[in-house]
Amino acid sequence: MYSRVCILFLTLLAAVTAFARVAGPDMHTPNEALHAPDAGLRAPDYVDTLDTRVTERNQRLYDSIESKTSRRAVPRLLYKMFFVKPRLDTTASGRVLDETRLLAPYTGKTIGEIRIEREQVFDPGGNWLERAGNKLHWLTHERVIRRDLLFKTGDRFDPDQIVRSEQLLRSRSYISDADVTVVPDSTDTTRVDLVLRTRDSWTISVDAGLRSEGRTMVGLSDDNIFGTGNRLKVMTNFSRHDFSYGGNLFQYEIPNLFGSFYGVKIEAGRSFYEETLALGLKKEFLKPTDYEVGVTYNDLRSKHYMVEQDTSEIVKVRNLDLWAGRSRYIRPLRSSFFITARYNYARFSERPAVWYGYNPALHDRDALLTGVGLYREKFLTANMVYGFGTKEYLATGYKAELVTGYSWGEFSDALYLGMGYKTGGFRSIGYIMGGFTLGSYIDHTSGMWSRSAVDIDLRWFSNLFIFRRNRIRQFLSFNYTQGWNREVGNNESIRFTDRNGLQALDEYITGTNRMVLNTETVIFAPFQPLGFRFAFFGFADFGLIGYSPNTFKNDFFTSFGIGVRIKNERLIFSRVQIRLGIAFGKHGLVASDYFRMSNGTRLEEYRYRPARPEIVGFE
Predict the structure, then answer these.
(1) Is a pLDDT exceeding 70 seen at residue 482?
(2) Residue 509 to residue 502: CA distance in whole angstroms
(3) Residue 533 pLDDT greater than 90, yes or no
(4) 343 exposure class (CB count in 10 Å sphere: 0-12, 13-18, 19+)
(5) Do 119 and 137 contact (CB within 8 A), yes or no?
(6) For residue 375, what is the enclosing H or E element?
(7) d(Cα 532, Cα 122) in Å, to the nearest integer?
(8) How many other C-beta atoms are found inside a 10 Å radius of the C-beta of residue 491?
(9) d(CA 446, CA 442)
């Protein structure tokens, strides 16, 4: 008994020692030679050397804990409950790599064998909870992984298709990691074999939601049902006042049907007074020369939020959306020319009052749109942007598009004209993205411009700065949205939103002119007490909104706050975000969202590939 207490004491002592130590892992994947650090930014060598020494010392500490606790049952059980082996990452550098350049020497060679090595969610030698999780989890079938590859045996090796395939696999919710290793054929210099290593994600989750009027939802979902990569979600609704039944809602999604890259989505059910039937089939642009096509049908009855009245009204609508597009790569321009077309049909059977110029978003309509333009998109890899060190694919490129069309409305017909441009990429000061969309209707009868809007976005995040052993990124985003010649009713005013708003503001304000500036500083801490990774952040948001054409005459608001994001690669728990904040107006303190705990961040990825033509957003 005494020896067991001593061992437990030693375990706790070692854990406390771990808390006092700092570590910045600098471990590399087996094919590190392929991902050589010659194409981007990296931390100073002395930082890597220091990190390596501390990592080795930290590893000896964990080995010591494991050795001491393995001799007795209770300490061994505690160790297996709280410690798991870390996954390899590259958190020490934050460098940006162009993998297509690293793969360029193999261009044009014939692809031979493509071997796929799949790994479970958790380490096979992990604790009992992880082993149980692996038994519950259905490993993704090999054919499911193969169907997402943009190449096959016998094709000519194209670095761009290799990188796009890795990015596509990593975008799947059931895959947490995917990496291709090139193995030259020792007997044939014109041939290379490929090894694709993947690791599954844990895909079973439970959801819950508390809504107004006592409505409560609980749901169960699996994003990889039976290892097929298909998603199934079942939600049940009830009243938390009297526990009366409110209905069920089912969702089923196939991301890639039989390897055709067509996605299928089906949703059906009801929730109290809401009813849903939604069917969708679509294929997106995946390569520089490609095509897209899609069709969705929705028969929905739901509460529709009315911005101007700050209330919700029942709306029932049948909507049919058809679109298609084609792109072709133009080598001299190093860009793709694309053309797209879209038809939209909407009929309302329940809605608030409508008439000419009132609630135009709820008018019956048939609309035809077409878009034409140029685009280029390429992926580079980095880390410590959205995640804590795993490889991330970030798009660079541009898209320029002209959109025109015609709308046959319930009360009037109108021509639509619009245009948009956005571009982004890595520069010497970090990643910069900027773009705008501009559009307006022209009344067929009067020739008057109406429902005009412009939306301008700027996004930036810095290079990964090194301060002592901390790694720091600065994020900044700017949005300006203005509408003019707007009509009256739903969707004719805007407010602060989650995407374009102030984090800690909980005030209801509307207008037709909005400007928002968000800043956030993220510090990736070097210490890892008990394997926990910490990213501390502070934010400052500033916003102007109102109905005056002069932006600076509108109401001013600001919010400030701090928070922390926590993740542990040695434990099975996912990332957690905790935020504190407060908001002010020009007259002092306003309604604030003081505290929030979540598992996500406000950061979002940018893409430049074309999609179906859209009316300029005003929301």
Answers:
(1) yes
(2) 12
(3) no
(4) middle
(5) no
(6) strand 365-382
(7) 17
(8) 20
(9) 8
- The tokens of 9 are what? 């004491």
Contact partners, residue 338, CB within 8 Å, separation at least 6: 285, 325, 326, 327, 328, 371, 372, 373, 374, 375, 610
Structure tokens at 602: 């406000």
Nearest to 550 by CA among 515, 574, 506: 515
Q: Could you tell me if residue 489 is left (phi over 0), alpha (psi between -120 and 50 degrees) or otherwise beta? A: left
Q: Report the C-alpha gap between 94 and 434 in whole angstroms.
A: 23
* CA separation for the pair 590, 562 (Å, rounded): 18
**DSSP H helix total and E strand total for the chain:** 7, 27
Backbone φ and ψ for 310, nearest 5 degrees, come out as: 50, 45
**Residue 154 region, left (φ>0) first, then alpha (ψ -120 to 50), else beta?**
left
Quote the tokens at residue 532: 């926990």
- The answer to whether 369 and 341 have CB atoms below 8 angstroms apart is yes
Please give the mean pLDDT across all residues of the chain: 83
Nearest to 413 by CA among 439, 371, 441, 438: 441
Residue 475: HSE in the Cβ half-sphere, 13 Å Cα cutoff: 19
Residues 269, 248: Cα–Cα separation, whole Å: 6
Checking DSSP bridges between strand 215-222 and strand 245-254, what pairing results, if any? unpaired
Residue 69 has pLDDT above 90, yes or no: no
Paired strand residues for 199: 119, 177
Radius of gyration of the chain (CA): 27
pLDDT in tens, 106-134: 999 999 999 999 998 877 877 777 788 88
pLDDT for the residue 312 = 82
Cite the DSSP H helix spans in 531-582: none
Distance CA 499, CA 600 (A): 13
pTM over 0.90, yes/no = no
Which residues touch 105 (CB under 8 Å, ≥6 apart)? none
The mean pLDDT value for 253-267 works out to 95
| 462-474 pLDDT per residue, tens | 998 888 888 899 9
Q: How many residues can be counted in the chain?
A: 619
DSSP-assigned letter for residue 137:
S
226 phi, psi to nearest 5 deg: 55, 25
Tokens 């800690």 locate to 504
DSSP, res 273: T
d(CA 199, CA 89): 13
Please tell me what DSSP assigns to residue 271.
E
Question: Given this model, what pLDDT does residue 87 score?
Answer: 41
Q: 180 - beta bridge partners?
A: 196
Of residues 214 and 455, more confidence is placed in 455
| DSSP 3-state of 57 | helix
**What is the reported pLDDT for 367?**
97
Contacts of 28-36 spanning 24+ positions with Cβ under 8 A = 28/88, 28/90, 29/88, 29/90, 29/179, 30/181, 31/179, 31/181, 34/102, 34/103, 34/181, 34/182, 35/97, 35/99, 35/102, 35/381, 36/102
- The Cα 387–Cα 94 span in angstroms is 11
Average pLDDT over residues 448-465: 94
Both structure tokens of 219: 């749901």
- Residues 6+ away with beta carbon under 8 Å from 1: none
Residue 165 has pLDDT above 90, yes or no: yes
